[in-house]
Amino acid sequence: MRHGRDVRGVGMTSARTRDRLVSRLRREGIANEAVLDRIREVPRHLFVDEALASRAYEDTALPIGLGQTISQPYIVALMTEALVRGLAPGEKLGRVLEIGTGSGYQTAVAAPFAQHIFSMERLLSLIRRAQERLRELKIGNVSLRHGDGLRGWKAEAPFQGIMVAAAPADVPGELLEQLEEGGRMVIPVGARGAQRLQCITRTADGYRREPLGAVSFVPLLPGTGN
Ligand code: SAH
Predict the structure, then answer these.
(1) 32 CB less than 6 Å from ligand 1?
(2) CA of 104 to the centre of ligand 1 (A)
(3) Is residue 137 part of a domain?
(4) What mean pLDDT comes out for the span 14-37?
(5) C-beta separation of 99 from 220 below 8 A
(6) Looking at residue 85, which CATH number applies to its domain?
(7) 84, 142 in Cβ contact below 8 A?
(8) Domain count, the chain
(9) Whether residue 150 has its Cβ less than 6 Å from ligand 1
(10) pLDDT in tens, 150-206
(11) Is the CB of 161 under 6 A from ligand 1?
């Protein structure tokens, strides 16, 4: 048996450990109970290497190989909360674009809040692993694609929500174009050490930006790799 690798978890991956993480996020200001429930529910320990499983419910980013990290739970909760703001309980967003699939953790957290998630990742090996995990967890409303997210996913646009998990210097114009009116994009912007998370809403006559605080993401890089 793969000790602690099952979905429910034992010891440091158990329900009690997850409850502690949720209490912490609540104290830090996450108020959407559906989002908190989803954080409790998604087995984050299955998205990291077995050697790191005991740290999976700490509120930190952890390495997932190739110099990339699984996002910090607080940031995943904050971004999801911003994206779903204003929805009635049980109501879903339509199409959502995610840039930077990474481990697939954030995809898994956001999945029940959208009709469909289109997620892009520039590193092929990460996307293969993410695909496997999402399948294992029977999360079916997700399409993954190996590609450069700076260009967005034009064939599936427009999107009601866009979440970007790596930081560009400026908001990419093609992503702004692929946001539908009334839709929202959550994106970290700026150079390493000076990034700010922004929530950008497309309105009838332009874009409205709201700051969500200082953050630290890996850079959004052009092109693709293995
Ligand atoms: N949210 C993810 C973590 C993402 S880390 C999780 O929960 O695991 C950011 C990811 O963005 C990395 O995997 C990196 O390879 C990817 N990335 C960086 N630039 C990109 C680009 N231009 N297009 C697509 N993915 C990109």
Answers:
(1) no
(2) 10
(3) yes
(4) 96
(5) yes
(6) 3.40.50.150
(7) no
(8) 1
(9) yes
(10) 999 999 999 999 999 999 999 999 999 999 999 999 999 999 899 999 999 999 999
(11) no
Among 23, 71, 125, 143, which one carries the catalytic annotation? 71
Is residue 77 within 8 A of residue 39, CB to CB? The reply is yes
Extract the runs of DSSP E, i.e. beta strands, from the chain. Answer: 62-65, 68-70, 93-99, 114-121, 142-146, 159-164, 179-189, 195-203, 206-215
C-alpha Rg value of the chain to the nearest Å: 16
Q: How far is CA 206 from the centre of its chain?
A: 25
By most ligand atoms within 8 Å of CB, the mutation choice from 38, 69, 71, 101 for ligand 1 is 101
**Is 90 domain-assigned?**
yes
Tell me whether residue 81 is in a domain. yes
Is the CB of residue 64 less than 8 Å from the CB of residue 102?
yes
Mean pLDDT on 81-85: 97
**Residue 82: what pLDDT?**
98
Single pTM value for the model: 0.96
Q: Is the pLDDT of residue 119 over 50?
A: yes
In a domain, 193, yes or no: yes
Look up 14 and say whether it is catalytic: no
Predicted confidence band of residue 1 (pLDDT cuts 50, 70, 90)? very low
Does the CB atom of residue 121 touch ligand 1 within 6 A? yes
Alpha helices in 31-160 (DSSP H): 33-41, 73-84, 105-110, 124-136
Segments forming the whole domain that contains residue 211: 66-215
Task: Round the average pLDDT of the chain to a whole number and report it.
Answer: 95
Q: Which residue has the higher pLDDT, 90 or 19?
A: 19
